[in-house]
Every structure is written in C-alpha cells, then in structure tokens.
Amino acid sequence: MLEVFLAQSQIFSDIRPHRLSTVLGSCVAVCLWDQRLKFGGMNHYMLPMWNGAGLASPKYGNIAIPKLIEQMNALGGNPQDYIAKVFGGGNVMGDEDKPYIYQIGTRNAEHAIHMLTYENIPVVAQKLRPNNGLKITMDTGTGEVLVRNVRRLSDIS
Fold this sequence. Notes:
single chain, alpha+beta, CATH 3.30.1330.200, five-stranded mixed β-sheet, four-stranded mixed β-sheet, 34% strand
C-alpha cells in the first residue's frame, strides 16, 4: 500500500488505496470517505478561516475542507456518499484560559464540524480538543482511521 504523510496545509485524495498519516496539535485533519466508491482523502489545516488577505491556502479550514471535497468530486465521488471523521484541535498550549480568539484548537475543531454540517456530510467519528497531540493514520481503501495519543516526539513513530 502506498503511504503519504500530510504536513500542515496539505490535502490528499486518490481512488487507489493509500495509508495517510499526520500528526496534530491544535491543527485539524478531516478524513472523508466515499462509502459507494470506497476511496478517501484527508486534509490538515492550521487555522479556521482565511481572512481574504494573501493567498487562499489550504492552511485555512474554510479553504482546505472545500478543496478536499472538490478533489474527491473530481475523482468521481459524490458528497451524498461521503462520511467524515475529524481529529485534532487540541489544547496543547494551555489555551483554555485565553480569550476565545486565541483558542486556535477550539476554533479549528468547531469550524470543521460547522462546515461539514453545512455540506451535509455526516461526522461519524471524532476526537476533538484533546489535551495532547494525536497521530492519525487513515486507510483510504476502507475508511478506517487509527488514532494514537502523542505526548512527546518518541510517541510519533
């Protein structure tokens, strides 16, 4: 099986089975899977909303989520057949005591759920706002996602 590691601001989908992985802190990954065609994809974004300045990058959730949907549609998928699994948005920097505008993980997580609800894509699994990092691995041929807690760099491998 082909393996792909997604860094921040990346999106990947393919009709062929892949093992996708990423490591998340306050960032969020949305994993989409087409139940009919049996393929999927993932994004990894850092901030919830692009404000219109600079490039419209998949660094932002409001760019990354629609781009993932577009990529899967271009491969023959139909959003009516998609399910989502959403991970990350962690409180890894002690943000909960800061004003909401600085709670990046919380805002990222809320934005993913909001956008997927708006797109009528059901969220069937989630691990959001953990107090630690996460390593996630998605099998795009089955839609299965494995999640591991990450507390230090040695936990990533």
